[in-house]
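Our consortium's second objective concerns turning raw sequence data into structural hypotheses that experimental partners can test. To show how far this objective has progressed, the report includes one record in full. It was chosen at random from the queue rather than selected for favorable results. The single chain below, 266 residues long, was entered without modification.
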Amino acid sequence: MDYISAPDPLKDMSELKHNRFYSLDDQGIKVPKQRSPEWFHMRKGKLSGSKLSQFLFLDTIDDFIIMFEEIWEGRKKPAFTEEQKKWVEWGCKYEDTAMENLLNNVKDIYVFEAPMVQHEDVLYLSASADGFYDQFDSVTNEVIETGIVEIKCPGKKKKASTNVTYYYVPQMYMEMAVSGRRNAIFCSWGPKTTRAWKIKWNDNVWNALCCMIDQFRNVKHGDKLKNWEKIQMCQFHLKRLCHQVVDSAVPLHTDKGWSNPPFKTI
């Protein structure tokens, strides 16, 4: 697989300093310290946005059952390999750099670092966007649009993606759903280039994701073969719609992307 699910960033909160960025600390939002008992409790039994990409890759009914047991029955997940850990560390390490480049190139937005948000009606659903944005009118300074920001710094290729990465679409939809915002900015960063696209909410995508979640919740109930047939159908429709989102995304960058300032990776 070319993706890796990394549900929890490795740092407590953003350290970015920018006149159009407000960290959790700036906003007076307190969250449990990383890997504390309170922090783990917040995430226990949650189908979080960052786990949803797995729906597009699991190949058998047993794969879905294992995922179910990992989330809700305490089954231990396989440990990341050392290589996978390095990919995750890379992605987390440069999120602030990516956010800064985004703000320096998209000058009509404010971004607020986002905490984990639980769905107001479905308590086992949650998501943690990298930020919430407010787009403002340059003349009146009034807010004309709101949305979420999702930052990805590909740790395997170490290059900015050339398109919205389709398997992150479910994650962004969950982030929009739990926050009540109906737009998303997907930003992909590499040492040389930053690219970003805007995505608008589509009910068809959300309905397909909800169908997938419903089937997943019932994966251990009823006839196994029939469950698998239903999951395959949901998976097919969700994957097709994710690719449609990629095709309809509007680039915010010019030409082949924004050239980054000289930068030395660590």
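The partners drew two points from this record. The two ends are 26 Å apart (CA to CA). Residues 224-248 form the longest helix (25 residues). Both points have been shared with the crystallography group to help prioritize constructs.
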